[in-house]
Amino acid sequence: MLTKSAAKAFFLGGTALCSIAFVLLTMDTLKQMPDRSNQDQMSESVVRGHHIWNQNNCMGCHTIMGEGAYYAPELTKVMERRSHEWIAEFLKDPERMYPGRRKMTKYAMFDPEEVGAEVAAGNVADVVAFFTWVGEIDLNGFPSEPDMSFGANASTTSLIDTSVDSSLASAPEYFKTICMSCHSVGLQGGNVGPALDGVADRYDADYLSKWVSDPQSIKADTTMPNFGLKGEQLEEILTFLATLTEKE
Length: 248
Description:
Number of strands: 4
Helix content: 40-55%
Largest sheet: 2 strands, antiparallel
Radius of gyration: 24 Å
Structural class: mainly alpha
Shape: elongated
Order of helices and strands: HHEEHHHHHEEHHH
Strand order of the largest sheet: 1-2
Distance between the termini: 84 Å
Number of domains: 2
């Protein structure tokens, strides 16, 4: 049993040792913060995106870096699951992409290329920039690798290697940046939706046209988004899909 003086010495020594350890760990954390926090990439667009995130109380439904609610998907690594372009399309009109299914509020999001500069001080582009920045922070492996990964913080187009599958060389830009966030061709692309290899052999042109332009008209509960494709853009997609036949 310790004497009073020994207990006092043990307490003071232990307190001093723990205090020194705390100071050293704090200093080490502060030293690593610039590199691990990705703060050198914190552009004005990222800051504006963070303000939009806070102003709209996005954490009331979503989590990011482990903080927030669990009603809606975790978004720390969302840019690894979807392309920049897909996220932008979704933010502008969540309900349009999932008619009757999505519960996300439609906020006043704008595309800088579609409206005047005085309105487009960022909105969609800034939120995407914020998500991209967050996804590049070193969080010691948090969250775990998504099971629907497309690629790390990069535009879908840059991840397509036409030397692996030459059929992708003729793919419209919209197909490469939006459609391939979910679908794959020649083992390239997302794994959320079915692979599209040989799709022209499985379905005729009329069916594909109806499906791409309005998937809910064929299957009401499908998770395939309705992007409102029409005109030349729709024709480009259908023309490309017609080339996706089974290779012998």
